[in-house]
Amino acid sequence: MNLNVILAKRENEVTECIAWGGSYKETASLLQISVRTVDNTLRKVKEKLGLNVSDPGRWCSYRRPAFLQPGDKRFEEIS
């Protein structure tokens, strides 16, 4: 992960909203942008930070428990 990245103002705003637990729709409404813009902005931020963009369950190098399914190997351990 590259922590020496400077994000644009809008990238910071979108990332902060999502980090605080806002959905894409809530973030879009709050910032008066489209949901697609939120998605594209986060994709750019992840690329700048060097995170794996192809796996939507990844953020900050760990799998979020929200994406766990009962059939997952570590479900009992994490949930």
Textual characterization of the structure:
This protein is mostly helical. 48% of the residues lie in helices and 5% in strands. It is built from four helices and two strands; from the N terminus they run αααββα. It has helices at 9-19, 24-31, 35-49, 75-78, and strands spanning 58-59, 62-63. Strands 1-2 form a two-stranded antiparallel sheet. A hairpin with a 2-residue loop joins β1 and β2 (62-63). α1 (9-19) crosses α2 and α2 (24-31) packs across α3. The radius of gyration is 14 Å and the shape is extended. Residues 59-65 have low confidence and may be disordered.
Specify Rg, calculated over alpha carbons. 14 Å
Kindly report how far apart the N and C termini lie: 26 Å
- Main β-sheet, spatial strand arrangement: 1-2
| Count of extended strands | 2
Task: Report the structural category.
Answer: mainly alpha
What average pLDDT do the residues reach?
A: 77
Q: Report the helical percentage.
A: 40-55%
Low-confidence residue ranges: 59-65
* Main sheet record: 2 strands, antiparallel
Strand content: 5-15%
The global form is extended
Count of DSSP helices? 4
Query: What is the H/E string?
Result: HHHEEH
